[in-house]
Amino acid sequence: MVRGLQIFYLRSPSFCSFSHDVSLFSSQAKFLTQEQITDYKECFSLYDRQRRGRIEGGDLITVMRCLGSSPTPAEVRRHLLTHSDAAGDLDFSSLLSVMHRQQQQEAPQREILEALRRSEGRRRGFMEVSLLRGRLTGQGERLTHKEVDELLQEAGLGSDGQLHCEQFAEAVTRNAAKH
């Protein structure tokens, strides 16, 4: 068991919740800090306007952004396909699953973005493609020029000019998740 984390169980819509220091996993439990659970529940309650223990799917992107995530509309649609009920609504347990999944997806994206920002130096958010190519073929686990071309193509970018760091990091992690 990881110290400082707890499993949160929820029985919707009654919001009967229990927090236990146990190391068992279940399909309705996610490892979250107590602070995250409190924040998520507070935000969820604000958007559960009818007090049914559910939020509307249309509010998901706003809720996620209020909670510090940066989902794209396409990511939100994928979450809704997986986690919403027939009416397109989500209960709190589903929100926990969505947020956990989004956090797992955003962590590598943040790491890539930070590495790109350190490499470009001026912190403009843009980088010369030639500079990225030089770093990827000359440092660390070196890629071939062909691999860099494929990476740029998968990310939907040309092989010359400026690279928007945030869009590149998003595209690379999105394409990696597909494979």
UniProtKB/TrEMBL annotation:
Q: GO MF terms on file?
A: metal ion binding
* Cited InterPro entries: CALM/Myosin/TropC-like, EF-hand-dom_pair, EF_hand_dom
Lineage of this protein's species? Answer: Eukaryota, Metazoa, Chordata, Craniata, Vertebrata
Taxonomic superkingdom: Eukaryota
Tell me what organism the protein belongs to. Pagothenia borchgrevinki (Bald rockcod)
Its name, as the record gives it, is EF-hand domain-containing protein
For this chain, the family text in UniProt reads:
Belongs to the calmodulin family.
Q: Domain named EF-hand: which ranges?
A: 35-70
| Matches recorded under PROSITE patterns | EF_HAND_2
User: Which Gene3D superfamilies does this one have?
Assistant: EF-hand (1.10.238.10)
Briefly state the protein's biological role.
Calmodulin acts as part of a calcium signal transduction pathway by mediating the control of a large number of enzymes, ion channels, aquaporins and other proteins through calcium-binding. Calcium-binding is required for the activation of calmodulin. Among the enzymes to be stimulated by the calmodulin-calcium complex are a number of protein kinases, such as myosin light-chain kinases and calmodulin-dependent protein kinase type II (CaMK2), and phosphatases.
Which key words are in the record? Calcium, Metal-binding, Methylation, Repeat
